[in-house]
Amino acid sequence: MEREGRYLEYKLHPAKSYLKTVSAFANYGTGRIIFGVSDDCQIVGIDNPEETALNLENQINDNLSPSPDYTISIDAQNLITVTVRKGRNTPYCYKGTAYKRNDSSTVAVSDYEYRNLVMQGANLTFSELPFAGDTHLTFSSFCREFEARLGIQPVFPDTYITLEIYSPEAGFTNAAALLSDDNPFPGIDIVRYGENHTQILERITLEHISVLDMLEQAEVIFRRVYTFETVEGFTRVLKERIPISCFRELITNALIHREWLISSRIRVEMYADRLYVLSPGELPDGLSREEYLSDRHLSILRNKSLSLIFLKLGKIESLGSGIPMIRETYVSSPVQPVFEVSESSVSTMLPAMDAAGGLTAEQLTLFRLIRDLQPVSSGVLLERSGLARSTQTRVLNGLIEKQIIIRNGSGPATRYSLKK
């Protein structure tokens, strides 16, 4: 039988603990609970399945609040399947607590996750919620950007109501606070390293300023570190070791799509040959890792009103175009960006476009073979590269350390691919 997991649970008998899993499926994703299966996945069946199914129905209706959307079925082996569908009216609670699935176990959600469920149930994003802090906000940076882009000054309260960052009933929203001159939410932590993490050359925290100023000041720091001027003929030409457009896209997306309920700052790590941008929080609900990393997906707005203001001010060209644009920019580079998604952050590594200049001839040979043949075995590489086995092993390990390639499998099944 299929193993238990995030969306499947087996129960031998209908002990009331299964109601926690009903809560988890209703909150986070459609799943099934199958009764009459032992811990070692043996089919036992349920005595008096019709009566038991009726009891399950009454238990779910009496103990879950609000009532989830579910169905109960009985098969020929007297197995009872409760299928619980993800609901819109989150959080779904059992005895006042909301639950989620961690692989094959069911656990209570954290305070942060509970607040997210409340917002989802109210069909609101963080940026649309009323701001709970000091309501005497000023917006000099926002007004300057608004006038530069649209040629007029925003008028209070009309413009702010139209932009959905103020209402006469509830006052300013969190999006307004993020745009304000004394933005109280976490900012951006920028660290410039030497050869490794132990050598910190510079550390700057951008905080208590508008997110618009954060974007502008982060770009100033970036230009100082990763751009330089050179003379070609009689003309001074600006060179970008890392494309400014890619960095701006990452910082903008981190500001408008990050999870603001987490108190961590956006983190930028600068090295001589690469740069990392880490945005706090997992992907928005409804957007899978595969969809996020694909070149075509609908943009799911975690902070709707803030995103639309950035779009109106020209800070982003379109929604959902970030990763495709970055990949297109690096299409001819031998060293590619790396996108990673975890349950606590979304991070991107941008390599310096001239990083390949630091590769030896042997490394470039293997890089090009792996790029063209991936996934490829070491045996095929030996045939094509002309390198000695010991030399190839050393070179491959060096490319792995530089995060240019990855090794999958072990023994004869080992294959090498570019890291993406």
End-to-end separation in angstroms reads 34 Å
What is the top-level CATH class of the largest domain?
Alpha Beta
How many domains in all? 3
Strand order of the largest sheet: 12-11-15-16-18-17
Arithmetic mean of pLDDT: 89
Radius of gyration equals 27 Å
Helical segment count: 14
Instruction: Specify the helix fraction band.
Output: 25-40%
What do we call the CATH topology of the largest domain?
Answer: Heat Shock Protein 90
If classified by CATH, what would the architecture of the largest domain be?
2-Layer Sandwich
Low-confidence stretches: none
- By secondary-structure content and strand pairing, the structural class works out as alpha+beta
Number of strands: 20
What share of residues are in beta strands?
15-25%
The description of the largest β-sheet is:
6 strands, mixed
- Given the C-alpha coordinates, what overall shape results? flat
Features:
3 domains, Arc Repressor Mutant, subunit A, 14 helices, Heat Shock Protein 90, Methyltransferase, Cobalt-precorrin-4 Transmethylase, Domain 2, flat, 420 residues, 35% helix
Walkthrough of the structure:
There is one protein chain. It is built from 14 helices and 20 strands. It has three domains: 8-110, Methyltransferase, Cobalt-precorrin-4 Transmethylase, Domain 2, CATH 3.30.950; 188-355, Heat Shock Protein 90; 359-418, Arc Repressor Mutant, subunit A. The model has no long low-confidence stretch (mean pLDDT 89). Helices cover 35% and strands 23% of the residues. With 420 residues, the chain is an alpha+beta fold.
